[in-house]
């Protein structure tokens, strides 16, 4: 089974990929952070290594993931995403976090 997932990217990554604020990627199999990011990187190879490390596939520091108002950044990468993402009702949001001050 595959799902068409809506993904919203931060401005810097949109510019790098040459896309608008939201893209759609087709994800086969279980719908997880790992599978969504894999589909995103497959469709937009220029994003390889920007959201997660190329070697370890771990989320880069200062990158956060949200669905609705829930911060999923510290969830297991293979944990299932909410059904609303699969239905297209919610967007998988990638945010570039800021630190320091």
Which key terms come to mind for this protein?
101 residues, alpha+beta, Ubiquitin-like (UB roll), 5-stranded mixed sheet, 3 helices, globular
TL;DR?
Helices cover 23% and strands 26% of the residues. The chain has 101 residues and is α+β, with helices and mostly antiparallel strands.
Backbone structural class: alpha+beta
Whole-number tally of structural domains: 1
The proportion of residues in beta strands is 25-35%
Radius of gyration: 13 Å
CATH fold type = Ubiquitin-like (UB roll)
What's the CATH architecture?
A: Roll
State the CATH superfamily name. Beta-grasp domain
State the helicity in percent bands: 10-25%
Q: Point out poorly predicted stretches.
A: none
| Largest sheet data | 5 strands, mixed
């Amino acid at each position: 089974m595959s799902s068409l997932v809506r993904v919203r990217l931060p401005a810097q990554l949109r510019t790098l990929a040459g896309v608008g604020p939201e893209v759609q990627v087709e994800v086969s199999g279980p719908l997880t952070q790992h599978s969504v990011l894999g589909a995103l990187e497959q469709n937009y190879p220029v994003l390889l290594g920007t959201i997660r490390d190329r070697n370890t596939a771990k989320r880069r520091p200062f990158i956060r993931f949200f669905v609705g108002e829930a911060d999923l950044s510290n969830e297991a990468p293979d944990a299932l995403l909410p059904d609303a993402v699969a239905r297209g009702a919610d967007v998988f949001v990638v945010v570039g976090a800021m630190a320091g001050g």
